[in-house]
Amino acid sequence: MDIADVAQRAGLPASTLRYYEEKGLIAPTGRHGLRRQYDEAVLERLALIGVVRSAGFSLDEIGRLLGERGLDREMLTARAEELDRTITELAALRDSLRHAAACPAPTHRECPSFQQLLRAELDHPVRTRTFPRPAGIARSGERRS
Amino acid sequence: MDIADVAQRAGLPASTLRYYEEKGLIAPTGRHGLRRQYDEAVLERLALIGVVRSAGFSLDEIGRLLGERGLDREMLTARAEELDRTITELAALRDSLRHAAACPAPTHRECPSFQQLLRAELDHPVRTRTFPRPAGIARSGERRS
DNA sequence: GTTCCACTTCAAGACGACTTGAGGTCAAGG
DNA sequence: CCTTGACCTCAAGTCGTCTTGAAGTGGAAC
């Protein structure tokens, strides 16, 4: 397969595939002239990358995770535990947001449960984890007609 | 209070406070010469910002969220629902990671449940949400002796 | 054998949230 | 009055994940 085929089937722009190669995450089976050639296996690899990425691994970490000796199970376990903590935090946050949204007090200053949340934040700030948003997948350019 | 006092009490570097001001999220009560002066209220404001930030709002969104007319409850509700979806996804992911870590198959290719996960990713890639990691809070410079 | 155009490389740009550095200001203490 | 140094501003740099653009290459169709 040419890179455009992989791009289409994986739903990723070719530029991303080149970038992943540069980072050592994927590799073409060879070249046809200049052109990278791939077989089906790369699709599975990309799927795997997609999954662990959505679990919060950075590309560098994924490089280590998928190192020579197969999947690093320790990293997986560690990340699972991290996810557990994250999930707990997010659930609490979600409840607080709902409560704040429903609270009839005209300003958040008058809502006792929100007060408590703020006090907790004042005591030991979170700041250890951020959750950026989707960013809307601005896909464009470099497309096979 | 001088900015260094706020910084210390909020656990944020002064540069961040200036940046938040530039983004319209906080404001000093006035100036003493050049120096920004703050009262206690800014600490509560910063705590609020910290909370909603950890719930996934970007600084720009926080600007809108905390607009003139108080907290925007619609935004809060929408974000709570988003968090719900996120939590569900993360929980599934966590289970998959645990399973993959525990799976005795020598390579992930031979683990049926991981296979299924990959197939799902192949069919409809996630790619709609990423979860960057802590980044280690590289705090330094600009400190009161 | 010439043309076409999907591919190639490499450098630079984009975005969000800050940080860093150079050079300047000014209130307070000696 | 002079020095000190915490503060100030503004421009530029950083980090991760890509995207974009310019300029070049070469397989395949004609």
Characterization of this structure:
2 copies of one chain form a homodimer. Chain A is mainly alpha-helical and 145 residues long. Chain A has 2 domains: 3-71, Multidrug-efflux Transporter Regulator, Chain: A, Domain 2, CATH 1.10.1660; 80-128. Chain A has 6 helices and 2 strands. A two-stranded antiparallel ribbon of chain A has the order 1-2. The model of chain A is unreliable at 127-141 (pLDDT under 50). At the A-B interface, helix 3, helix 5 and helix 6 of A face helix 3, helix 5 and helix 6 of B. Chain B binds a DNA duplex (30 and 30 nucleotides) through helix 2. Chains A, B: Keywords: DNA-binding. Chains A, B: It comes from Cryptosporangium japonicum. Chains A, B: Residues 1-68 form the HTH merR-type domain. Chains A, B: This is Helix-turn-helix domain-containing protein.
Keywords:
two-stranded antiparallel sheet; MerR-type_HTH_dom (chains A, B); 2 domains; Multidrug-efflux Transporter Regulator, Chain: A, Domain 2; 145 residues; DNA-binding (chains A, B); DNA-bd_dom_put_sf (chains A, B); DNA-binding; 2 strands; 55% helix; 6 helices; mainly alpha; homodimer; MerR_fam (chains A, B)
